[in-house]
C-alpha cells in the first residue's frame, strides 16, 4: 500500500457555504471537502491528514475560511514527545484504570456515554442531538482501520477514544468520557495513552486534529510538546518553551490544495 495518491491524480473538491464557527464566537467558517464520489483509500487519507485534512465520518475536509487561518493542523512525533511532570503525575493517579483497544463497533453502552458527555460538555450543540444512525456515521465509519480504546474503572466504562490506524500514524478522532470522572482529567489521560499506543504499534506520528489558540476546546493541545504544526504548507516543530503560532498562514496567502 502506498502512502500517497498516484502522481497526477486529481481529487474532486467542493466548498461549503459559510456557517457559524463552532470554535470562535461571531466568526463564519467554510471548509473544502473531498467529493463523496471519490474512493478514499487508507493511503490517500494518510496523505490527506499530512496536508491538513481531517474526517467526520467518511467526509474528508479542511478549513477554508475567507478571513481566518486560526485552525492549525497538529501532530506529535511520539518518539520525540516528553511528558511533563504534571502529565506523569496524572498517569500515576490513574494507574488503576484499564485502557484497552477493541474493534470499532456500535455499542449502546458507548452511545449512552456519548449522550451524557455531550449534554455535559457541549449542551445545545449539534452533536448533542445525534441519534444512533448519526452517531454511527460520525464515529463508526473510517477511511482506515478504526479502533476503539476503552477506559474502565472496576469494570465500569468511563471513557471511549475513537482512533484511526494507518501505515505510519495514528489519528485521534474523538474522545468522550463520563462527566462524573472529570477530576481525573480523562481527556488528557486518553491522549497520553494513545501516544503510548502509537509507540507500541511502532508508528511515528499521532495526529491531534486542529489547534486553535483562542478556543478552549482546542487550546489544550499546546500542553503536549514538542508539537508539530502545519504552517505555510510545512510541518514545524515547537518545543516546550516556544511560542505557538496563532494562524496557519498569513491572510494574504492564497488558499490552495
Number of strands: 14
CATH class of the domain at 85-200: Alpha Beta
Architecture per CATH nomenclature, i.e. the level-2 architecture of the domain at 85-200: 3-Layer(aba) Sandwich
Contiguous helical run count: 6
Radius of gyration: 18 Å
Structural class: alpha+beta
Helical residues, percent: 10-25%
Average pLDDT, to the nearest integer? Answer: 91
Instruction: Give the neighbour order of strands across the main sheet.
Output: 8-9-10-11-12-7-13-14
Question: What is the subunit arrangement here?
Answer: single chain
3D structure, described in words:
The chain has 257 residues and is an alpha+beta fold. It has a domain at 85-200: Aminopeptidase (3-Layer(aba) Sandwich), CATH 3.40.630.30. It is 23% helix and 30% strand. It is built from six helices and 14 strands. An eight-stranded mixed sheet has the order 8-9-10-11-12-7-13-14, sandwiched between helices. The chain has a four-stranded antiparallel sheet with strand order 1-4-6-5. A hairpin with a 3-residue loop joins strand 10 (156-165) and strand 11. It starts with 12 loop residues before the first strand and ends in a 19-residue tail after the last strand.
In short:
The protein has a domain at 85-200: Aminopeptidase (3-Layer(aba) Sandwich).
What attributes characterize this protein structure?
four-stranded antiparallel sheet; eight-stranded mixed sheet; alpha+beta; 257 residues; Aminopeptidase; single chain; disordered N terminus
Amino acid at each position: 500500500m502506498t502512502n500517497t495518491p498516484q502522481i497526477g491524480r486529481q481529487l474532486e473538491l467542493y466548498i461549503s457555504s459559510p456557517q457559524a464557527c463552532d470554535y470562535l464566537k461571531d466568526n463564519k467558517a467554510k471548509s473544502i471537502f473531498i467529493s463523496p464520489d471519490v474512493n478514499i483509500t487508507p493511503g490517500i487519507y494518510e496523505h490527506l491528514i499530512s496536508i491538513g485534512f481531517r474526517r467526520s465520518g467518511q467526509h474528508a475536509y479542511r478549513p477554508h475560511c475567507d478571513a481566518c487561518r486560526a485552525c492549525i493542523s497538529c501532530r506529535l512525533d511520539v518518539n520525540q514527545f516528553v511528558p511533563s511532570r504534571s502529565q506523569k503525575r496524572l498517569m500515576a493517579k490513574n494507574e488503576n484504570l484499564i485502557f484497552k483497544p477493541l474493534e470499532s463497533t456500535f455499542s449502546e453502552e458507548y452511545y449512552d456515554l456519548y449522550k451524557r458527555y455531550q449534554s455535559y460538555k457541549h449542551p445545545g450543540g449539534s452533536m448533542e442531538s445525534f441519534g444512533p444512525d448519526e452517531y454511527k456515521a460520525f464515529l463508526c465509519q473510517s477511511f482506515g482501520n478504526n479502533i476503539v480504546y476503552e477506559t474502565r474503572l472496576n469494570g465500569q466504562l468511563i471513557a471511549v477514544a475513537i482512533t484511526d490506524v494507518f501505515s505510519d500514524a495514528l489519528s485521534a478522532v474523538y474522545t468522550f468520557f463520563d462527566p462524573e470522572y472529570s477530576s481525573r482529567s480523562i481527556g488528557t489521560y486518553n491522549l497520553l495513552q494513545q501516544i503510548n499506543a502509537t509507540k507500541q504499534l511502532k508508528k511515528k506520528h499521532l495526529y491531534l486534529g486542529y489547534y486553535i489558540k483562542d478556543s478552549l476546546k482546542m487550546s489544550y493541545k499546546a500542553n503536549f510538546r514538542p508539537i508539530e504544526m502545519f504552517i505555510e504548507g510545512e510541518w514545524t516543530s515547537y518545543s516546550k518553551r516556544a511560542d505557538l503560532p496563532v494562524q496557519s498562514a498569513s491572510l494574504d496567502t492564497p488558499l490552495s490544495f
